[in-house]
From TrEMBL:
<dbReference type="GO" id="GO:0005737">
    <property type="term" value="C:cytoplasm"/>
</dbReference>
<dbReference type="Pfam" id="PF13432">
    <property type="entry name" value="TPR_16"/>
</dbReference>
<dbReference type="InterPro" id="IPR044534">
    <property type="entry name" value="TTL1-4"/>
</dbReference>
<dbReference type="InterPro" id="IPR019734">
    <property type="entry name" value="TPR_rpt"/>
</dbReference>
<dbReference type="InterPro" id="IPR011990">
    <property type="entry name" value="TPR-like_helical_dom_sf"/>
</dbReference>
<protein>
    <submittedName>
        <fullName>Inactive TPR repeat-containing thioredoxin TTL3</fullName>
    </submittedName>
</protein>
<keyword id="KW-0802">TPR repeat</keyword>
<feature type="repeat" description="TPR">
    <location>
        <begin position="203"/>
        <end position="236"/>
    </location>
</feature>
Length: 555
């Protein structure tokens, strides 16, 4: 008869965990079980403190850690939902887990380890040596080391790396907006003003904050605050006037004029708005309007302001008259006087100056004069200056664009000029000229790329029939002539290009190379040295200069 089956002794929870994890490494014989049962009985007699319930979170963490069965947050949530427990929470409360400050060394155990506690320590130590890993640490209800990838705590270290314990949140954890601003240095007084403005309903407070930003040179922030104040109280003249000042700081002069006009409409006796409006009219070349508002800017307007306004008006009138009789030198002189008197942003004055410079073949100076004009919206410019003045400005811009090689922009500007001023018959001819020159350059470039230098030279020549002083076409034809060995003619084309554009570096370099090929070392050195001053980092220029100096010494 078979012997009756022996009743298996009950084991404590820690022993059960231990057997499940390391049963493969340690024998499950009856002798071991009896020894374990004896140890469990001994520990149970010594430990009179009641155990926590099986649902205690620390027990779950111990089981997860010892079994090395790292569930993802989604799996953990599903497990809790199935068992009827509370759903998984990736952010535990402050009272749940205390992170251990030191790991147990994998090759050394405390001498005091005995009983079930020591057995667990030795088992963990064996597992660490076999797996060559030190991330598994003994845990208890009062001392828990949790893996970051279990989802219970957030760790800055990726899974599989050693994560050090921290008393504070890692830097890479999600931050609030205020924390991000502080960390990266974006929190500023201006941002504080903007945030206060969003929640404030006091327009005076908005204005004061805008004034603070304006004094610091932050005109865009000041403009936003003034806009907020106007939205809260649109009938306050000072808000409009201050907004005009912010717009001036941003270079938006015509919008600033509109705001100052609105300010004096609201309060016709607002002295500061009148003075600000007068200064704007002065810059835009409107001398009579500037004088009128200067007189309304106080009981005794400054004599200097009135004088400047009258000087601007006088020089503008003389500039227009000189242009009518085509006295280009007088146009340039009167335009410069008007700018010196205060009309530094007047399109009509600066466009007249650019036209006179073009007529005198000073293309580079014409480009500089046109750059001084602020960029105005076409509709706003037409409303303020009129269609004829706006059309004239675009007509001159088209001509400057042609000589500078900006042919597409030239065509667009000329078309605007013809549309704004139908009586300007020259605008149509400028469009045709721009298209002819652009076509010639395109054809010449294509022929040059395939090595047809003679045909490319002829194509550039056709373009020069429409615009004989076009520096771009002259320089390109010089390149063709250099390839054909016509160095003397190439030097002539480069010299013609430099006469109208003295800072045209490509033409100067090409002339220096041609002079070097003709062994005119002194002329070559002169051009190379000038290029070195303008572009000191060019290796080609440095090599050419060095070679020319060597050859000159040999002579």
């Amino acid at each position: 008869m078979a012997s009756p089956e022996k009743k298996k002794p009950r084991r404590c929870r820690f022993l059960s965990v231990y057997s499940r994890c390391f049963g493969g490494r340690r024998s499950a014989s009856s002798g071991d079980l009896s020894a374990s049962s004896s140890a469990a009985t001994k520990i149970a007699s010594l430990n009179t403190k009641p155990r926590r319930a099986a649902s205690d979170e620390s027990s779950l963490l111990v089981s997860a850690a010892l079994s090395n069965n790292s569930m993802t947050p989604i799996e953990a949530t599903a497990s809790h939902e199935t068992s009827g427990r509370a759903p998984y929470n990736p952010r535990p409360s402050h009272a749940i887990v205390a992170v251990a400050k030191k790991k147990l060394e994998p090759n050394r155990l405390p001498e005091s380890s005995n009983g079930i506690s020591g057995e667990l320590d030795r088992a963990i130590n064996d597992h660490q040596r076999s797996k060559a890993s030190g991330t598994l640490v003994r845990a208890s209800s009062s001392n828990v080391m949790v893996f970051g990838h279990l989802g219970n705590i957030r760790s800055a270290n990726p899974a599989g790396t050693h994560a050090s314990n921290r008393n504070t949140l890692p830097d890479d954890l999600p931050k609030t907006a205020r924390e991000r601003e502080t960390k990266y240095g974006t929190t500023s007084a201006s941002m504080g003003n903007i945030l206060r403005a969003k929640s404030s309903t006091n327009p005076e407070e908005m204005k004061e904050m805008g004034n603070e930003e304006y004094k610091k040179g932050r005109f865009a922030e000041a403009l936003a605050l003034y806009d907020r104040a106007i939205a809260l109280n649109p009938e306050r003249a000072s808000y409009r006037s201050n907004k005009g000042a912010a717009l001036v700081g941003l270079g938006r002069l015509l919008e600033a004029v509109n705001e100052c006009r609105e300010a004096v409409r609201i309060d016709p006796f607002y002295v500061r708005a009148h003075h600000r409006l007068a200064a704007l009219y002065l810059r835009l070349g409107e001398g009579k309007k500037a004088e009128s508002h200067f007189k309304m800017s106080g009981t005794e307007p400054k004599h200097q302001d009135i004088t400047h306004a009258r000087d601007v008006q006088s020089h503008v009138s003389m500039c227009v008259e000189a242009r009518r009789v085509r006295d280009w030198h007088t146009v340039i002189r009167e335009a410069e006087c008007a700018v010196s008197a205060g009309a530094d942003s007047a399109p009509k004055v600066l466009a007249s100056q650019a036209e006179a410079l073009l007529k005198l073949h000073r293309q580079q100076d014409a480009e500089s004069a046109l750059r001084a004009i602020p960029v105005f919206d076409i509709d706003a410019s037409t409303k303020f200056f009129g269609a004829v003045t706006t059309g004239y400005f675009h007509f001159i811009r088209a001509q400057v664009d042609i000589v500078m090689g900006r042919f597409e922009e030239a065509i667009a500007s000329a078309q605007w000029a013809a549309q704004l001023d139908p009586n300007n018959k020259d605008a149509a001819s400028v469009v045709m000229k721009a298209r002819a020159v652009a076509s010639a350059r395109l054809t010449g470039n294509e022929l040059f790329k395939v090595g047809k230098f003679g045909e490319a030279c002829a194509a550039y020549g056709e373009g020069l029939q429409h615009d004989p002083f076009n520096a771009v076409l002259l320089c390109n034809r010089a390149a063709c002539r250099s390839k054909l060995g016509q160095w003397e003619k190439a030097v002539e084309d480069c010299a013609a290009a430099l006469n109208v554009r003295p800072s045209y570096g490509k033409a100067r370099l090409r002339r220096a190379d041609c002079n070097a090929k003709m062994e005119r070392w002194e002329a070559a050195i002169k051009d190379y040295e000038m290029l070195m001053r303008e572009t000191p980092g060019e290796d080609e220029v440095r090599r050419g200069l060095s070679e020319a100096k060597v050859q000159l010494k040999k002579l």
